[in-house]
Amino acid sequence: MRTPSVKPPVTGLADLRTESRIIATPWSRMVRGIGLGQHPVGYDAAAADRIRHTFAALSARGVEQNAYARFARLLAEFALEHAVSGAADPARMQEIVAQAQAHPNPYFRVMAWCIAMDAFGKLGLGDELISLPGTDIAGELPAAVDAIEPDRIRDENSGRHGHYERLSASSAMFLAMAQLGLGHRLTSGRRNYLLDALDLLDSVPSPFFRGRGGSVLMSAVALLGHEDLWRAGGRDRIAETLNYLDRSGPGVTVPVFPQPMSRAFVEIYPLLTMLNTIAMSGRATEYLHHGRDRLAQADELLRALRPVERTHMGLYYIMALHNLGRLEDQLPAYDDFVEELVGEWRNIDPGRNYFLNGISYAYLIQAAVFTGRSDLVTDDFLNRLVDCFPDLDRTDDDRVNRPYPFAYALNVLAEVGRDHLLFEPRPAYGGACAIDWVISRLSPGAHREPRLYMLHHALIGYALRLRSPAPEAPVFRNFRFAADKLATGRAIRD
Fold first, then answer.
1. pLDDT at residue 492, as a whole number
2. Could you tell me the residue ranges of all domains in the chain?
3. E strands along 280-402, which residues?
4. Residue 444 pLDDT > 90, yes or no?
5. Spatial separation of the C-alpha atoms in residues 35 and 219, rounded to whole Å
6. Alpha-carbon distance 403 to 459, whole Å?
7. Which of 20, 265, 353, 385 could covalently link to 361 via disulfide, CB atoms 3.0 to 4.6 Å apart?
8. pTM score above 0.85
9. Could you give the CA distance from residue 326 to residue 320 in angstroms, rounded to a whole number?
């Protein structure tokens, strides 16, 4: 093997913590803001300077007119200072909470709330957050979730979401409350919030969104120890969702993507996320054969993908098989699969478009690192990613959405210790550094860039990673995948 160009945060799949196995891919962290700050490494002054430099550049561009941007900077700065001094000023915490509550959009208000809760929990300040004067997490957060109305997302799928946004916000709320040890509050009062959220599945019309969003929701419910609620009321929401994924033909709501995607992509994405949820169940074997052989279906769909589509789905596939304990029998040529998957970077221009090509390299780097094949991430690979962003001036759509792939790039480069490449002068940017060049191209106040919040998520996640390594929250630490229990039992018998 070649000497790796990166510093991987893990040595391979066996080294992953539970949170990373459940919330494994960049989509969850960058788009939904859940699972930020995985793989803590300890304080690094140079990294902290880069984070602060980025926030300063964003502020100079007028971005902090937005409450979410102010919230992100305050939280990241708090995390950086706490990593050095252990400081936990209640007034500073209160200011962060106030900014989280200030966003006029209820979805972003919930997202900020949940990110703050998760962050304070990871910093060991959950009790301090709960005891802040005037803070009623168990009352205010569910009320904000309830205020999220259907079909309010303004993107290429406007009108196709139903209650997808509220369902996703519920998942974030459950994970955040679990991080703080407040999961019991979700089922102990007059209202069972877990069951209410599961009922939202019926109000998400697209099989794609129902499967992808529902998988995160049902994973959160299982993590909290309530897998039984999947089958509450004589129903089986895993089986029902799998049945719904099998729907096709007229009348089925099909998602729209920034670039045309194959039918196989539309079908495999929610299936793989559901397989990862099924891995958390004690009835995994039953669900894997519900309606059809679901692993055979996944294999068939993966083979039908175009190579560039496979770069997005490869990591999902690997993680699902790993968590199911089926990696060995489903991918006997596992190492060859990883090499072919990651090696596809040579055939993909990451600057061709912001979505299909633009985020592919981040998925490939993550896949290489998680599988213990960091040697596949070469300097040429990294340089091509870092230098691609000027090419996204080709269309207005690519230009205003440039923060999307840039956030993915910053996130993954920080995780592998190579984000400094974004902060050094480069010929591709006329002697400027990538971070300054990209931010300087934002519209004033970033009013035209709808996905700038992803860059804020990347920065918050990076700041949280600079905390000292510590055990996961008990809700993650105490969870066991069914396949792991089975493997442990076999080892004991042997």
1. 40
2. 13-493
3. none
4. yes
5. 13
6. 12
7. 385
8. yes
9. 8
